[in-house]
Amino acid sequence: MRVEPLGDRGLIVRDLPEPAWQWAERLNRLGLDGLVEAYASYNTVGLDIDPGIFLWDSALNAESTSYEPEDQILHRIPVCYELGEDFLVSADRLGVAPDEFIRIHSSATYRCDAVGFCPGFPYLSGLPEPLCGIPRLPAPRTQIEPGSVAITGIQCGIYPLLRPGGWTLIGRTPLEIVHVADGYFPIKSGDRVQFTPIDSLEFKRMRGERL
Amino acid sequence: MTVQGPPRTGLRRFGVPPGGWFDSEAARIANAIMGNPIDSPCLELTFAQVRVSFAVATEFAVTGAKCEVKIGDRTVGSRGRFSAPADALISISSPTEGVRAYFSTRFGTLLESGARVMVSDELPIVPTTGRSHALKIDEPDETGPPNLRVVAGPQAGLFDLSRLVGQSFTVSAKSNRVGIRLDEKPFPHSVELASEPAGYGAVQITPDGTPIVLGPDGPTIGGYPKIAYVISADFDRLGQLRPGQTISLDEVSLEEARGLAREHQARVEHRAAELSLATRWS
User: Where in chain B is the domain with CATH 2.40.100.10?
Assistant: First the structure.
């Protein structure tokens, strides 16, 4: 493992001995002195710390402690691809026909490696190779509609709330996937996700339902 | 105008940022001079022009950004504790210095942090006991461009740090609680990273070269490279940066940053305790 500072109250941990979400969960359960919270990203973990108290040595060998992971759920998420602002452009850019794009994207099973960026945004790995390699936008869009399904590089994600963002928008889900005030965070790190194609009529009918 | 309190912890794993007061020192002082516990929620007024009245005679506090406070037609000051008779119209002008003013009264624990307050909303207050006197507080007015201190970030090595530290930047009008954007674009790049932890204070560089300093509602994870982090002792000042204002950035070591954080924390607590004591004895 390698550890680097993130400002004066945080650390980033790289080269982890196990999946980031699992290592973060383990650390949170250990209740280490001065550790406010551990949170996973793709292959790194962020630590929010009280620097006067937290000792990095206390986190070493965490992976050898016993731990019962929570049940991992498979979420099926409906997506209307034709509502993705960049759907046709990105299919063209990748050299994949639109129908083929939908077939490839919706036949994969993704794993949620992290939830972050904004409340409830799932970072999904498992994007099939033909859809990989689109860079982030040079300047982020100032507002992205909730439910937008997006890709960049080897990543896929869903914008749950109105936010600025720099990923390419390939579709929209009608479902509400987070409700902060209610503490509703149905997708957690370690869960699996599959996408089901729907048309715009189904999108209207399902709009606002909860995942 | 929103209700803000101390930062939330424990929900970072669901992507929920810390949130809370952008200028926590000013908010804590507002609570202290009202005799509230210093971590009580209060109102954060962002570039706001506000009119309120109370159904009963009461005291209230205004701190942070410099505003003109009027009771009826009478100007009573800019920062401090004031008494208003029942039904008097209290007006707080848009700030002439800084961005965020904090408005506190005996809200007790009746407000929900993060809630947006709309025109005509009624807010609950705890009736005050006894009478207190007006109390003016002095805030040193900044001279010259505010200077923010940073420590190097994890991707500092990908950029020429000397084009950031020791340099002047202009605060963009597209700044808010998510991030303070700067107008200059000295670092265009095509670095593609897997998303990794970001958080409050991170100075991210977008591909077109713009530095964005993440605020209390900013992303917990991000893929833009982080050239630096603003030190936590300077977070309160970030919350008062005005669009168009010039700032300069200086680099400090991690040890210095941690020392400055302890000093800042101790200074705020000391000042709050003194003002709270003065309130109790006035």
Answer: 147-251
